Amino acid sequence: MQTATWSPGCTPAARSRWLTRLAAASSSAKVWVKPLPPMMMAGLSAWVSRNAPGYMGGEGSRRYRHLMDPTDRFVSLVNRPASEAHLDLMAGLIGAAFEPGTEVGDVVVGIDRLAETCRADFESILEQLFAHGRLRGNSADYGDPRNSYLHQVLRRGLGIPLTLSVCAIEVGRRLGVSVQGVGLPGHFLVECDGRYADPFHGGRVYTAEEIEPAWRRITGMQGALERRMLQPVYTRTILLRMLNNLKNTFVAMDDPVPLRVLARLRGAFPELEHERGEYARWLRHWN
Question: Is the pTM of this model over 0.85?
Answer without folding.
Answer: no
